[in-house]
Amino acid sequence: MDDTQIKERDAERQREQQEYERLVGRVRVHGDRVALVEVSEDNDSGLFFPPNMVKEYIICRVFAVGDGAVQGEPKPRTMWLKQGDTVLLQFNKMMIAQCGHVIDGVRVLIVPQGDCIGTLDTQKVSADTFHPTGNWVLCRIVVPEKVGRIFLPSGGLAPNTSSARPSHYFVECGQGALDLGLERDREIAINPARLNLIKLRDTLHGYIDKGFVLGSMLGKKEEPPASGGPSE
Predict the structure, then answer these.
(1) Rounded to 5 degrees, what are φ and ψ at 200?
(2) What is the CATH number of domain 3-130?
(3) pLDDT tens-digit profile of 36-55?
(4) How far is residue 121 CA from its own chain's centroid?
């Protein structure tokens, strides 16, 4: 990054900070929702999301948090996000239309906190800064080199293509994993249709709601040979 790019980035950061400070205290949100404003991402990210026609991802900053009280529920829900958190949000065009608002010329989003799949230590999205929150479980995916006589392409994004010898899933981290008592590297059984694919450090991963983790192996299991991560 040259001097001009550094100055432009610093100016963008300053503008975002000013927008954030103007928004704090302007909105009260209800239930388990959070109010977000989009921020820019460092372009040397170590996190890659395979193309997806449904979901997109942006980095946001939380400027207001609900009290967790939901009508019809006796106890408030736990709010794991707080004001000032930097989060990775999964969204689609319909969500933007339904949850997008403009305050003082700034686009903001008011969404359930569960739509934020994790917090970030910085605005650089990488394996080191990304921490799954709430019900999400981050798992590492190991695709066998071959299934019988059928060879899987190295760039294949389908995590489970054969009932005879399916892919293997190993816990990386996430609050959802802690809630289930699952430690790192424990092999788990999941509903693959509910898995959202990402790539961290050139290794195929996915995140899934803990409700779709069906079970786990008793004891750690040696990983089978992998065919490699998806191509960008």
Answers:
(1) -120, 125
(2) 2.30.33.40
(3) 998 887 655 555 565 554 66
(4) 13
- Tell me if residue 52 falls in helix, strand or coil: coil
Q: Where are the alpha helices (DSSP H) in the chain?
A: 3-23, 93-99, 175-179
The pLDDT assigned to 188 comes to 94
CB count within 10 Å of CB 121 equals: 11
Where are the domain boundaries for CATH 2.30.33.40 in the chain?
A: 3-130
The pTM for the full model equals: 0.73
- Window from 73-77, 94-98, 194-198 with minimum mean pLDDT: 94-98
Q: Output b/e per residue, 25-51; b: 16+ Cβ within 10 A.
A: eeeebebbbbbbbbbebeeebebbbee
CA distances from 106 to 22, 60, 61 (A): 10, 13, 13
What is the pLDDT confidence band of residue 79, given thresholds at 50, 70 and 90? very high
